[in-house]
Inverse folding.
């Protein structure tokens, strides 16, 4: 189950990175309060690529103490997964001895530095010039999309960082990622808002019953009511007390914004308990409506701590 979960999380991170790749520069602007533990992200990335690396390389890891960096953990994990996979695939299969891949972290000149180095086939000068171009790949047809390094480059640059490549044909490659250190915000020592989920009464409104049941299983310890019909959910939300109402944005018959507006007309206090959920990929007009609704938004799939943070934004019940 743990392995299945890690695989699902990796798939979610890849999809998230693809969605980030398609956004405009304004939409991709990093959150100023993002604070990611580099060592934690590195260990998560290593867990994801361990099966790919074990048959190709001897792995060397040196994680020095580094201040938190201004990039989301999901983005940094994806960056490191892409770099480690590329390093692994640069090692020829069939060597008498395994190749070498090294991952090191350090802090230099007020920035965090992450280096992924391999002793693989290396790159020509022409390949180095194009290595971050979308859809450029030196792999055989069907073996690569050419998106990994372009997404990596975009994620790093959008976070205000930089990425450098040094390589020589036949003598390996070194990828160096520079990331800005996160600036401590006012009141940070008090910690992020947190809310215990156990015992909360939640209404989940999602026309996809499979998604709804999955959320209900994840929210064990909560009193969860699931409705697949937004109109039936509206009747229930207007009449019964809930600590929070988690409503999908894209539903037939009545979308999440319309649900919130209808609930506000019938029970304004209940409408203040609404948290919108989205799988991403919203059309511009729908995204604008969601923003105007002024409700907390969760992007599916989400973890319990992300839900707790969103619920902490709601007024006291």
């Amino acid at each position: 189950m743990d392995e299945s979960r890690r695989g699902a999380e990796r798939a979610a991170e890849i999809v998230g990175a693809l969605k980030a790749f398609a956004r405009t520069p304004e939409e991709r602007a990093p959150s100023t309060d993002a604070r990611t533990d580099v060592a934690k992200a590195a260990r998560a990335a290593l867990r994801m690529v361990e099966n790919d690396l074990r048959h190709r390389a001897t792995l060397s890891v040196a994680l020095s103490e580094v201040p938190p960096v201004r990039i989301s953990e999901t983005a940094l994990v994806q960056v490191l997964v892409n770099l480690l996979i590329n390093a692994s695939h640069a090692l020829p299969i069939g060597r008498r001895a395994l190749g070498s891949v090294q991952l090191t972290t350090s802090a230099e000149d007020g920035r965090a530095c992450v280096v992924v180095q391999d002793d693989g086939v290396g790159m020509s000068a022409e390949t180095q010039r194009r290595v971050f171009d979308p859809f450029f790949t030196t792999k055989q047809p069907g073996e690569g999309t050419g998106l990994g390094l372009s997404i990596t480059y975009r994620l790093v640059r959008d976070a205000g960082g930089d990425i450098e490549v040094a390589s020589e044909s036949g003598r390996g490659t070194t990828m160096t990622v520079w990331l800005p250190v996160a600036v401590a915000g006012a009141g940070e020592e008090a910690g992020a808002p947190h809310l215990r989920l156990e015992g909360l009464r939640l209404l989940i409104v999602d026309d996809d019953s499979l998604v709804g049941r999955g959320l209900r299983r994840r929210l064990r310890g909560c009193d969860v009511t699931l409705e697949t019909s937004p109109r039936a959910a509206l009747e229930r939300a207007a009449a019964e007390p809930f600590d929070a109402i988690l409503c999908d944005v894209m539903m037939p018959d009545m979308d999440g914004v319309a649900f919130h507006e209808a609930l506000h007309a019938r029970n304004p206090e209940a409408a203040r308990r609404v948290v919108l959920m989205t799988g991403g990929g919203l059309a511009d007009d729908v995204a604008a409506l969601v923003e105007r609704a002024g409700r907390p938004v969760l992007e599916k799939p989400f973890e319990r701590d992300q839900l707790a943070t969103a619920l902490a934004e709601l007024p006291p019940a």
Remarks:
- The mean pLDDT is 82.
- The radius of gyration is 22 Å.
